[in-house]
Write a structure and sequence with these properties.
It contains 9 helices and 9 strands. It is of the alpha/beta class. The strands form 2 sheets. It has a 7-stranded mixed beta sheet, with helices on both faces. The protein has a two-stranded antiparallel ribbon with strand order 6-7. Helix 3 links the parallel strand 1 and strand 2. The protein is globular, with a radius of gyration of 18 Å.
Length: about 260
């Protein structure tokens, strides 16, 4: 399977279906950001601490795998020079809608989170990477490319899933019954039965990969980052989040 092509088309369908993570911010949000009143999400509901950003105005910011008309427009309205890179043309189109509607200058790039070869070394002051690497089979190249393209003392703000969520049978967990089914790290391509995978593909759902904390946090450290911030977050609608936070975020600095 060409996972890049499949997930690109799957996320285009998510935009058409109105997935919450594909809904552009309203004009009042960008208007407030112009006045200095703003926040963004890396994880479901907990805003990123403002002191993680430093002075955003004038910074060169890459919103990595971050299409959908949310983080990029807010940061652009706050005064950053923003590039949004995403694998889904429809997600990028949502950023274009906000940029044209609200008079924002946002550079849109179609591409993969693990291949930033179009950007020279030390291009960005800040990289914003909300929960999205669960759609990439291998994430260590993501961290290496982020490190390469950041300037010295630049920051990478990342959200990602707790791998514990992939231990359990998904359908049973949705019903509030937790049946340990899968070993970690997890992959829809290899952890599911053939019948279950065929059903996911038939529905056109994006395929996911549950990465270990060794790859998530250890991978950032191996790339050369110093992790200077961390928090956890919960998705209220998910039954497992009643017991343990299913999402986390890090601030990593190119020291």
């Amino acid at each position: 399977m060409d996972i890049t092509k499949y997930n690109r088309e799957a996320w285009d369908r998510e935009v058409a279906a109105g997935n919450p993570w594909t809904q552009p911010v309203e004009s009042q949000v960008t208007e407030a950001a112009r006045r200095g009143d703003w926040q963004i999400l890396l994880t479901p509901v907990r805003p990123v601490p403002r002191d993680w950003f430093g002075v955003v105005k004038g910074q060169k910011v890459l919103c990595l795998a971050s299409g959908g008309g949310q983080q990029g427009p807010i940061l652009a309205a706050a005064g950053a020079h923003v590039v949004v890179l995403d694998n889904s043309p429809a997600q990028l189109a949502q950023d274009r809608v906000v940029a044209e509607r609200d008079g924002l200058d946002i550079q849109l790039e179609l591409g993969l989170m693990d291949d930033l070869s179009r950007f020279p070394d030390a291009t960005f002051d800040l990289i914003v990477h909300p929960v999205s690497n669960l759609f990439a089979p291998n994430i260590r190249p993501v961290w290496r490319e982020a490190f390469r393209t950041l300037r010295r003392r630049g920051s990478l703000l990342s959200g990602f899933a707790n791998p514990v969520r992939y231990l359990f049978d998904r359908e049973e967990a949705d019903r509030g019954t937790f049946v340990v089914r899968h070993a970690l790290p997890y992959s829809d391509l290899t952890s599911l039965s053939r019948a279950a995978l065929d059903e996911y593909i038939k529905k056109g759902e994006p395929l996911e990969f549950g990465h270990s904390l060794d790859d998530q946090i250890g991978g950032q450290l191996e790339a050369g980052f110093a992790i200077t911030g961390f928090y956890e977050d919960r998705w209220p609608e998910h039954p497992l989040d009643k017991y343990v936070p299913m999402f986390m975020a890090t601030r990593a600095v190119k020291a």
